[in-house]
Amino acid sequence: MNAGRIPYLHPCASLTLAGIPPETFEYRLGNRSALEWVVDQYRVTEDDRSGIKSDLNRDDDPQYIVRLVGQVVNASYETVRIVRTLPPVFPE
């Protein structure tokens, strides 16, 4: 994912989520945006040695990841918007 440069997310071959505001990527959890963190955590992986597959996606609710991404985008965007309205901590 090109954080802040591409306003869409392509989590799998059959799904593209578009219209992600660039401000979403400004809300950081450590060294990554909240959205990057969620996408990384929900990425399907398979261990090369054991062949064990890690898939946190929910078979009983295929729209779960779409809703989750929407919630993270909204929370990140709103947090950045609110923080921008706060007065400076150390005024000049």
Question: How would you summarize the topology of this molecule?
Answer:
Blueprint: E1 8-12, E2 15-18, E3 28-29, E4 32-33, H1 34-42, E5 45-46, E6 53-54, H2 64-85
Antiparallel strand pairs: 1-2, 3-4, 5-6
Helix pairs in contact: 1-2
What attributes characterize this protein structure?
disordered N terminus; two-stranded antiparallel sheet; 2 helices; 92 residues; alpha+beta; 6 strands; 18% strand
Q: How can the largest sheet be summarized?
A: 2 strands, antiparallel
Side-by-side strand order of the widest sheet: 1-2
The overall average pLDDT, rounded, is 82
Through-space gap between termini: 37 Å
In N-to-C order, the SSE pattern is: EEEEHEEH
Low-confidence stretches: 1-5
Radius of gyration: 16 Å
**Residues in helices, as a percent range:** 25-40%
Structural class assignment: alpha+beta
Our count of domains comes out at 1
Give the overall shape: elongated
What is the count of β-strands? Answer: 6
Give the number of helices.
Answer: 2
* Strand residue percentage: 15-25%
Question: Could you please describe the fold and organization of this structure?
Answer:
With 92 residues, this protein is of the alpha+beta class. The protein has one domain. Helix content is 34%, strand content 18%. The protein is built from 2 helices and 6 strands; from the N terminus they run ββββαββα. Helix 1 (34-42) runs antiparallel to helix 2. Mean pLDDT is 82; it is low at 1-5.
